[in-house]
Amino acid sequence: MIPFASLPEAEEALGRSLTLWEELWWSKTHNVSDYTLYCMNIIFLFVIFSVVPLPYVLLDVLKVKSAEKYKVQAGVHNEPSATWRCYKVVMWTFFTVVGPLQLCSFPAVRLIGVRFGLPLPAVSEVLMQLTVYTIVEDFGNYWLHRWLHNGWWYDAIHSVHHEFSAPMSFAAPYAHWAEVVILGVPTFAGPAMAPGHIITFWLWIAMRQLEALETHSGYDFPWNPTRLIPFYGGAEYHDYHHFVGAKCSSNFASVFTYCDWLYGTDKGYRYMKEVHRKEAIAKSKEQEKREAGWLRADDLKPIPSFLSNDIKSS
Ligand SMILES: [Zn+2]
Ligand SMILES: [Zn+2]
Hints:
Keywords: Membrane, Transmembrane, Transmembrane helix
Distance between the termini: 57 Å
Number of helices: 14
Family: Belongs to the sterol desaturase family.
Shape: elongated
Radius of gyration: 23 Å
Largest sheet: none
Order of helices and strands: HHHHHHHHHHHHHH
Strand content: under 5%
Main location: membrane
InterPro entries: Fatty_acid_hydroxylase, Sterol_Desaturase_Related
Bound molecules: zinc ion
Oligomer: single chain
GO cellular component, one term: endoplasmic reticulum membrane
C-alpha cells in the first residue's frame, strides 16, 4: 500500500511535484495492496504465454509458404495436435507451479527490497537494472542449463524441454516442474542483487519470457530488432540446441552467445555454420553457372532457404 493518503502529501514528502506517470501510478494503485500488485504478474504471464506465441504458432501449423524462407529448420513443422498438447502441458505447469510460486514468493520479494510506491524509478535506473538482470540471468542459466544436460538430470528433468527438436514458441516454457524451479533461481537473482520498483520487476519477467518465446519460435526474421543487440543469440542459435537434442554440448546460454564462446561450448554450432557457409558458396557458384548457361536447370537442386540466407550474408 502506498504510504501517501493524497497527492499533495506525496509531493510534500518527496519535496517536488509528481510527474504525470507518478500521478497516474498513485491514482491507480493507492488503494491496492502490494501483494495484489505483485500477483498481477500471474495475469501478465498468462497473457504472454497464451497470446504472444500465436502468430508464430499459426505460421508453423498452417505451414505458411511466404514465411518458409525464415524457418530455421526449413520444411519441419509441428502438427496442430502436438502444438495443442504442448500448450495444455504449459498451462498445467503454469497453474500448478508458476502461479503458486508467485503467490508464495511475496515475502521474499519484500525481503529483497522491491519497492511498490512513489517515487517511480527513472528510465535510466530501469534500463540499468534490466541490463544487470539479463547479464546475471544469462550467466546463471548457462551453468544450470549445462548441468541439466548431465546424466540423471537430463533423463529425469531436462529431457522434457527437449521433446520438441524443432521448437515453437509454446515450447519455451514447456519443461519439467523442477526445471521451472531451478531456472527460476537466476531469473530472481538479478532483482535480489539490485532490487528495483515492481514496474521494473514486471518488465523484467515480461522481457525474459518474450525473449524465450522468440528464441523458441522456429523463425528467424531479418527485421527482428533483437539482431541489433551485441552478442544476442536468437532463434537460430537456440534452435540448434534443440535440433541436436540430448547429446548437445553446444549453445547452453539463454540470451547471449559470449558464455558459450568463452567456455568453448559453441564449437558444434560454429562447425555447422562453417559447413553451411561453404555449401552456400558452392551452391551460389552453381547458380551463377546455371544463369550463365553452363549448366542445365535440371542439373541443380533448389537451394534450401537457410543456405540462401547464408549466400546473402557471405
Ligand atoms: Zn538443453
Ligand atoms: Zn529451449
